[in-house]
Design a protein that fits this description.
- There is one protein chain.
- By secondary structure, this protein is α+β, with helices and mostly antiparallel strands.
- The chain has two domains: 35 residues; 277 residues, Lipoprotein localisation LolA/LolB/LppX (outer membrane lipoprotein receptor (LolB), chain A), CATH 2.50.20.
- Helix content is 21%, strand content 33%.
- The chain is built from six helices and 16 strands.
- The strands form two sheets. A 14-stranded mixed sheet has the order 8-9-10-11-12-14-15-1-2-3-4-5-6-16. A two-stranded antiparallel sheet has the order 7-13.
- A hairpin with a 5-residue loop joins strand 9 and strand 10.
- Helix 1 packs antiparallel against helix 2.
- The relative contact order is 0.18.
């Protein structure tokens, strides 16, 4: 299989391209130089030399453009960075999580684990908070690899070898099967462009970084670590960084290629409450919770909680990268026109063992 070059760094390259210029003859420069040379010989002295150089430069610029010398235009100041409080940014994250209930689409997936690399086009189904289905299809549409999860089990099926792996939906088993030391809730949330949140966000703080045109929301995680979320000028999350109790970076998720997408009809308030309670019960993280009202001062392109049955728009990242430095793991998803809130059935994620497949049960003790 063709392997693409090593993935680009999530951070922008701050170096500027080198600019090379080539001298070109200027019409009329010789005559101007001759006149200035005669003036220099006639006047003599250091002041005359300075005058000659100044006149020569003016003559050359006049020959090039015929324009008067103007002072350089002062750079225009950037518009002020809109500042939000910590509670406002948390409310924006909660609202975004509630708006996206499921996702269906095709994605170009790249998975790197140490020196191993896997790249293929995938059919992706996500139903939040913890249902995920990734299927590799062959040239003629046949299934080559299938991974599914729900709140209880993880499953991997290799049709060619007829091997079916089954395991509990734990962080450890997900690391063993896919090499990603994440909870299934975190993986499903990040893969759908969302930000994993603890059940209760407490002790949150926010810091503005005007030079980078962003704000950083920081709050402690249940495992005595810390999580940061970077927001751009439109209050859209662009980075998620998670640190352990020792301050080591254990997760970096980068969102890019934002495009306006139309979401399906929103559920009623009662349905939203039900979804919220079911999401909170899984893994200590919320997958669909959200505030009922918009944060004060929210920008126009930040999604608001629309009325029941109404469609809304959202800036969705069509490129998602997940890096886990401690595990040497990297995952990239590049979506092609994903669809949202299509009403995916739970049966699509509960994939039973096909007839004749060898069932290999994985558990915590094996």
């Amino acid at each position: 299989m063709d392997i693409e070059p090593r993935h680009r760094s999530w951070s922008q390259d701050a170096s500027s391209p080198e600019v090379r210029s080539q001298a070109t003859p200027v019409p009329g420069a010789n005559s101007a130089a001759g006149r200035l040379s005669r003036l220099l010989r006639a006047c003599g002295g250091g002041r005359a030399k300075v005058l000659a150089r100044t006149l020569l430069a003016a003559s050359l610029l006049s020959a090039l453009g015929g324009c008067a010398l103007l002072p350089p235009e002062a750079p225009r100041p950037a518009p002020p960075l809109a500042l939000y409080g910590a509670d406002e940014l948390v409310a924006i994250l909660e609202r975004r999580a509630r708006l996206v209930r499921d996702l269906r689409g095709v994605a170009h997936l790249t998975l790197e684990l140490g020196t191993q690399r896997f790249q293929a086009k995938q059919a992706v189904l996500i139903r939040l908070p913890a249902m995920l289905r990734i299927e590799t299809l062959g040239l003629f549409g046949q299934s080559m690899f299938l991974f599914t999860s729900d709140s209880r089990e993880l499953r991997i099926f290799y049709p060619r070898e007829r091997k079916y792996y089954l395991a509990q939906a734990t962080r450890k088993n997900l690391s063993r099967l896919l090499g990603l030391s994440l909870s299934i809730t975190s993986l499903a949330t990040l893969s759908s462009g969302g930000v994993p949140l603890p059940r209760l966000v407490s002790g949150a703080g926010v810091q503005a970084v005007p030079s980078l045109r962003l704000q950083v929301l920081s709050f402690p995680t249940p495992a005595a670590g810390r999580q940061e979320v970077w927001f751009d000028t439109s209050a859209t999350p662009t980075r998620v960084l998670r640190y352990d109790a020792a301050g080591r970076l254990i997760l970096l998720a980068a969102f890019a290629d934002f495009r306006e997408v139309t979401l399906g009809p929103q559920p009623s308030s009662s349905g939203g409450a039900s979804a919220s309670s079911s999401a909170t019960a899984l893994g200590g993280e919320r997958g669909e919770t959200g505030a009922a009202t918009a944060a004060p001062g929210a920008p126009r392109d930040t999604p608001s909680a629309g009325a029941a049955g109404a469609a809304t728009t959202l800036r969705f990242p069509h490129e998602i990268e997940i890096v886990m430095p401690q595990d040497g793991a990297f995952l990239r998803l590049r979506y092609e026109e994903p669809e949202f809130n299509v009403g995916l059935d739970q049966a699509a994620f509960a994939f039973p063992p096909p007839p004749g497949a060898e069932v290999i049960r994985l558990d915590e003790a094996s």
